[in-house]
Amino acid sequence: MTICAVIVSYHPSNELLDNVAALRDQVDEIMIVDNGSDLATKALLDQLRNDPKVSITYLPENLGIAAALNVGVKYAQSAGHEWLATFDQDSQASPKMIAIMLQAYAKHPQKEQVASLSPSYLNPNTGQIFASIPRHSQDDLFPYLEVLVVITSGNLIKLSTFDSIGYFNESLFIDQVDTEFSLRCACHGYKTLEVKGATLLHCIGSPEQIKILWLTKNITNHSSLRRYYLARNSIYLYKRFIFIQPTWVLVNIYSLFKVIAMVFFEENSFRKFSAICRGMIAGLSNKMGKFEGSI
């Protein structure tokens, strides 16, 4: 089986070169889709121009994460690959991450029902691991856990899945694109597996731990614009899946209110709160796509 990795870039740092190097020997081909970055990014990516495993596509403007991923999907399909690995520009695959996920897939008794494989996530700044599987689990017979949703970065998707459920939802632009895709997979009877022992170095936002009385809480410090998209797209998902995945919706409504509360401990808190309110209104009124204007 052959694997094409797609990395979506947007004004990346030099870290992207290290992340490509970490992934290079784990897949058959790497495609970087740049989402309308500047000339400095082109100069950076030009360092990869002589690598036969790497191809680069420059989009004329920022079309959003879903549109950029779909460019990679369609390329991988046309090239005859069987799997697509999706990555953010600031995520780094650990050694043998892809191989470990495929080994777990080989042990699944219903391979035709598996849509995607996902690693656990290690925050390189704090050492904190985010995983559904206990770190010291000794179950080697079933080295995976069926989960409902996973994030984009590190996700290994069977390309035939797109023939059944369609491409990533471009109306979301950014944020919750991965969640919507995962929920759609579940609605079509597909399984998503989180694989034990597969680890991706990945950091969500600009995380920071703060003290609130005797409690230690995490804040992500996302920008106001990201807060808008997160709120808007969350409302979109709640409306779409409330009768299909009611438990997930109710849990995530609670999570959204926790996010709103924690925003007041970040910089520019009232601006971010305003962005969340605007996003929720946009979601309720089905105002999707790229946000135009200032926020």
Could you characterize what this model shows?
This protein is α/β, with parallel strands linked by helices and 295 residues long. The protein has 2 domains: 3-201, Spore Coat Polysaccharide Biosynthesis Protein SpsA, Chain A; 208-284, no CATH class. 37% of the residues lie in helices and 23% in strands. The chain has 9 helices and 12 strands. Strands 1, 2, 3, 4, 5, 6, 7, 8, 9 and 10 form a 10-stranded mixed sheet that branches. A two-stranded antiparallel sheet has the order 11-12. Strand 11 and strand 12 (215-219) form a beta hairpin. Helix 7 packs parallel to helix 9 (269-284). The longest helix is centred in the last third of the chain and has 18 residues, at 224-241. It is globular, with a radius of gyration of 19 Å.
**Unreliable runs:** none
For the biggest sheet, the summary is: 10 strands, mixed
CATH topology of the largest domain: Spore Coat Polysaccharide Biosynthesis Protein SpsA, Chain A
- The ordered H/E elements are EHEHEHEEHEEEEHHEEEHHH
- How far from one another are the termini? 45 Å
Radius of gyration: 19 Å
Structural class: alpha/beta
Name the helicity range: 25-40%
